[in-house]
User: Fold this.
Amino acid sequence: MEQVKLTILGSGSALPSGNSFPCSQILEWRNKQFMIDCGEGAQIRIRQAAVKSNRLGHIFISHLHGDHCFGLIGLISSFGMLNRTADLYIHSHGDLKKLMQKQLDYFCTELPFNIYFEPFHPKKNETIYEDRTISVSTIPLKHRVPTAGFLFREKQKDRHIKRDMIDFYEIPVWKIPKIKQGADFETASGEIIPNRLLTTPPDPAKSYAYCSDTMYFEKIIPIIQDVDCLYHEATFASTEAVRAQKTMHSTAGQAGKIARKANVKKLIIGHCSARYKTHQQLLTEATNEFENTALAEDMKSFYF
Assistant:
């Protein structure tokens, strides 16, 4: 079974610290790469983490706060110097194109590739990207500016055909794809062999949800229900619950509560405030609510 790889490029919040750059991630899935948010220094972390970005075609920006998009112009400029030729698609709030166009016109006048801005409505839960194997939909979040998380969901895979059945019924190679997709097989004598005898169930489709930044918001639970992995912001400890409410962020305990109520398989917390010298307190508070919790750390990779 193919694993999904998530590399944390930046795990911090608005103010970077010595160990934590602002938010950014690379998701590697089904021979594709997706970037989620692009905080300042994201391209530095790509180099430090030895991530090859040659398959990166789509960047998803959750909202237009600087710690989630200030790294874009530098990344794009570097792509140009590296003679990238593949088109780059940036999915974001519609204002991002207006904000970046002057920078692109000034600093990136001779790019060898095209940039396409794909706007979405942050308050809608809708599909904003889809290919043969993966779909991406928005998760409306509750923050000080229009913000959306992203749900990456693998499409149902084909069934596994039994090798001994191929030999026994002398199934032609050209019929195998249809059988994997659920078709029965008709022998030369006209006998119908049910698909359930020829195949075994497909591997379960995987899913990943990214939720940053947001205050505690239970309306996301039906959207992220049962996902394999959830990344949820955990900016503050419970001692700063009033501040979290005022700034429309979450505490670590609230992130754990969302994970528990949504019955996710794994929780990763991040976007931790620079006020904490270590994030052990945040991890402990989240784990008290949801046991299978991990802490996002810059250049750390997770597999699921």
Remarks:
- The two ends are 10 Å apart (CA to CA).
- Residues 95-107 form the longest helix (13 residues).
- The CA atoms of residues 64 and 99 lie 10 Å apart.
